[in-house]
Design a protein that fits this description.
The chain is of the alpha+beta class and 171 residues long. It has one helix at 2-48; strands spanning 70-72, 76-86, 88-89, 97-98, 103-114, 120-122, 129-130, 136-137, 153-155, 160-170.
């Protein structure tokens, strides 16, 4: 009798364990199905959106200045001191930046002066260059380790900071 009772208990425990694993697999299958549906919906939405345009919005303000001219903005003054083209740029740390085969770097040496009464973090985002084909280029974010870089530095009021910002453009 004890042997039959032990067998029945073992059989009951085995059924519970099997049921547990079947339930987990069922739940995993449901989750996979939901994730697949979500991924399909995201793909459909992404495919329905037109690719980013390279045209310049009408609200863009062009400031045509020569090297050495001051650009007066609402929170700062900028002055382009020099511009040079390079294929490789040494970095303060890590490997040098090397331009892709079809591109080159435009290194802009500029001076930024905070004209407000409070310090702020200078971010070159929004200080873009535009070529003769009206294509816009933002600064190269992986140039932050650039020697004498002017990316993400604290600009105190009325103290000029000079440094370089890098853009990658087609040859």
């Amino acid at each position: 009798m004890k042997k039959e009772h032990l067998q029945m208990t073992f059989l009951g425990v085995a059924c519970l364990i099997i049921g547990f694993f079947v339930g987990i697999e069922y739940k995993n299958a449901e989750i996979r199905s939901i994730l697949t549906k979500a991924q399909d919906e995201i793909s459909q939405i992404a495919n329905s959106i037109s690719p980013a345009t390279t045209t310049i919005p009408a609200s863009t303000v062009f400031i045509d200045k020569k090297i050495g001219d001051d650009v007066v903005l609402s929170t700062m003054n900028l002055k382009v001191n020099s511009i040079e083209e390079k294929n490789t740029i040494p970095m303060d740390f890590g490997n040098p930046l090397t331009a892709k085969a079809e591109t080159k770097f435009v290194v802009v040496d500029l001076t930024a002066t905070n004209t407000t009464s409070d310090p702020f973090l200078y971010d070159p985002d929004g200080v873009d260059i535009i070529d003769n084909k009206q294509r816009r280029y933002t600064y190269k974010t992986d140039s932050i380790g650039l020697p004498k870089g002017l990316s993400f530095i604290n600009l105190p009021p009325s103290i000029a900071e000079t440094g370089r910002v890098v853009y990658e453009v087609p040859k």
